[in-house]
Specification:
This is RidA family protein. The chain is built from 2 helices and 7 strands, in the order ββββαβαββ. It is an alpha+beta fold. Strand 3 and strand 4 form a beta hairpin.
Length: 133
């Protein structure tokens, strides 16, 4: 597993997802559970995508989630709970279609929360909880 060890909490960090923009880790593992911080649709190289269509933003945010899961030795089939913040509930059908493409038959618990706005003008942010090995 990638990351630094701090007591019984392992910090997960990968260059294959957007670097944290503040004082937080991309993800942490504690007692067999992986907690993934909210992922905005910022590309791994730091390029912002707030000017891109919702579908592009959703794919980038999901790519970040998948990269962090991979860095922790996990996959989307290990997801237990996903929370999605969407600026505008009208994006829900597009998100559901894209999300299903990433997760296939796996169906973790999920909440889609409509919000009036997200940081930097983004249209989506995704956080997740997964089992860890």
């Amino acid at each position: 597993m990638a990351g630094n060890q701090t007591g019984s909490i392992s910090l997960i960090c990968t260059a294959n997802a957007a670097a944290p923009g503040g004082h937080y880790a991309q993800a942490v593992v504690h007692q067999g559970v992986l907690y993934v911080s909210g992922q905005l649709p910022i590309r791994a190289d730091g390029v912002h995508s707030a000017d891109q269509p919702f579908e592009v933003q959703a794919s980038i945010a999901l790519d970040n989630l998948v990269a962090i899961l991979s860095a922790a030795g996990r996959s989307t089939s290990d997801l237990l709970k996903v929370t999605v913040y969407v600026a505008g509930i009208e994006h829900w059908p597009a998100f559901d279609r894209i999300y299903a493409g990433y997760l296939g038959e796996h169906r973790p618990a999920r909440a889609v929360v409509p919000v009036p706005a997200l940081h930097h003008g983004y249209l989506i942010e995704i956080e997740a909880v997964a089992r860890s090995g």
